[in-house]
Amino acid sequence: MSVLVVLEQRGGKWNRQSFEALAVGQRMAEAASTNLQAVAMGGSVDALAREAAAYGADKVIALEHPLLNEYTPDGYTAALEQLIRDINPTTVVFPHTYQVRDFGPKLATRLGQPFVSDVVDIRVESGHPVFVRQLFQGKMNADVEGAGAPALLSVQAGAFRAAQAGSSASPIERFEAKIDPGQVRSRPEAPFREGQRSIDLGAAEMIVSVGRGIGEKENLGLVEQLAEALGAELAASRPICDSGWLPMERQVGSSGQTVSPKVYVAVGISGAIQHLVGMKGSKTVVAINKDESAPIFESADYGIVGDLFEVLPALIEEIKKVKA
Amino acid sequence: MKIIVSVKQVPARDSALRVNDDGSWLDQSDLTYEMNEPDAYALEEALQLKEKLGGEVVVLCAGPQRVQQTIREALAKGADRAIHVEMDEGAYGDALAVGRILANALQPESPDLVLTGLQSDDMGYGQTGVILAELLGYAHATIVMEVEPAGDSVRVKRELEDGWYQNVVLPLPAVLTIQSGIKKLRYATLMGIKKAKAKEIRVISAARVEAGTSIERVYLPQKSKQSQIFSGEPKQAAQQLVEKLRFEARVL
Lengths: 324, 252
What we know:
The complex is a heterodimer of chains A (324) and B (252). Chain A has 324 residues and is α/β, with parallel strands linked by helices. Chain A is 27% helix and 28% strand.
């Protein structure tokens, strides 16, 4: 009986979301009075396992294999299937990363279990965990029960406070996985970035960001005027950049830039989690949206519910007045 | 090349969502529906691959009678035929249960490629493609931006986090989950709509599968931040906001 947390690394560095998953694992292990194990996997994970040993797990498992040097869904699934069948945990917790999205459901299906992905909260009711997930791009929450054993879940970035490193060191144990090269069907090439970014939104003090609500490319001028009045950089959510209305390098979110300005003004942005993870470090968030149930309002300090084509001209005028 | 595109019909993006009386699901009485947006991009990719390489595009869609509207739309855009897996109205348990139903319908078709959107806008599991690949024994890649078939394999560009990408080569048959926005979506032409009427929609009943998890309750999320919302006249709301930004947040 134990709770297992699958940590994620890339290029010998821990993904910070791993420690959020570890904190969730700690909570679940405490609630079930069972022990907590964390697995570090890759081609060679000695240093990573030693680092992870400071985070309070009862045991860190080093799962090494030459075929895990590069991530593949086949390799990771084969290795974790063997580990899970061997230690038979009650619960397995993953960070909800792009990589976990790629192999988590495969591993769960291999084990005949549902995968409760992108969990934002967990309650324990009469001894059973209730997992909270978002539906409709964050507009609704749902309580999910019956995840079975092992319960397999991934936790949303930023939804839980990360575990902190302490002074004690958990014991490290090796696990030998058998992976046959013939099992690994995909051939990954080296990751790359496209071009140099000419705008570093990460350094901007003020950002005005525009989303689908703007409707047409021709309407962008209004948002530009607001940015100009504030002295802010212009940014956008993904659909705007996908449409080619603004360059990709102005995209904020999980696939774009991560920003932390003093003021972030979200105009016509509903606030899907992929966008929120890119701007949650902002000090003051202002949302302008006609839909009062848009999830962006949950992250906003100030909000205006209204038609942006009426609100923006009024706002630009007010800002010009106080800046004059 | 034979391509199956798995599409889902979801409540339209700007729907007003209301919880039903017992809190078990949405009040569906006044919902309108549309094709899940990422699936529309999967369909577009499939149609462009067919235009380049020839072959067949088959649409697979599960749900009640209403999903035939989405199926017709896909046929009007250029898909050759469709399979409608008939299911009752309501929430369908978990992604694995639905994946098993779709895989059962898909298996006899023996496609070269299966495309689907990277996630649905309603349930947001982001799992269906990956589950299908595992159940069918196919290789897979998720969050795909570009697809280049080459003989008995396919090279895809995957999106990683923080602006990183990676090319991956997979053997066929394979399942790819397609990222939104990778191509420009086409509109159905009048001719396409006319032609769609003559195209085959095979209706099959869903295999019986047990869902592992169940949704016990749906509800509006609690606000995590104390937000001050101004919803009066635009001019008044703008004045209130600017005052707060000046004297409370002290950023103007």
